Amino acid sequence: MTAQPPEDRIVLLESFADPITAHLAKSRLEAEQIPCFLTNENLVSLNRLYGPASGGVRLHVRQQDVAAAVDILRYETVSMTASPADDATPADERHCPRCNSTDVAFGPATRNTYSWPMLLLSLLLAYPLRGKRYHCFHCRHEFKRSEA
C-alpha cells in the first residue's frame, strides 16, 4: 500500500452547527473551483441534538487547498435577516432599563407573563402561551417595549 502525498490528503477545514451554513460555505468554495465535501450532514439534519455530539456538519478540503479556502471563507457573510420595520427600535438604541446593558433581545418571555385571557386559554389548551418581551442577558431582567 502506498502512502498519499501530503498535498493530496483530505483535512477537516471547519465544522458548522447547521447544514444550511455548511452548504453556503461549500458553495462559496466550489464557486472558486476548490473541491470539497460535507460529512455528518444527514445525522445533524435528522436531529439537531446530534450535532454537538457528532462534531456538527464538517467541511473537508484537500491539504493543498486549505490556505485558499481559509481566505475565501474568512470574509464575513451577508446577514440573512430582514430589515427592521420603521416602528421597531434600532438595535443600537435598545438597552436594559435596569443595568443599561445593550445585550438585549426580543423573544418569548421566560417568566410567566399571563393576562387573564391568556391564562384561561393556556389552561384550556393545556399548553403555556407566553407573551413576547425584551430580555437582558446581563442582568436577566425582562421588560416591555415601552420601558426600553
UniProtKB/TrEMBL annotation:
Coiled-coil intervals: none
InterPro entries: DUF2007, N-reg_PII-like_a/b
Start and end residues of each DUF2007 domain: 15-74
Pfam families: DUF2007
Protein name per Swiss-Prot or TrEMBL: DUF2007 domain-containing protein
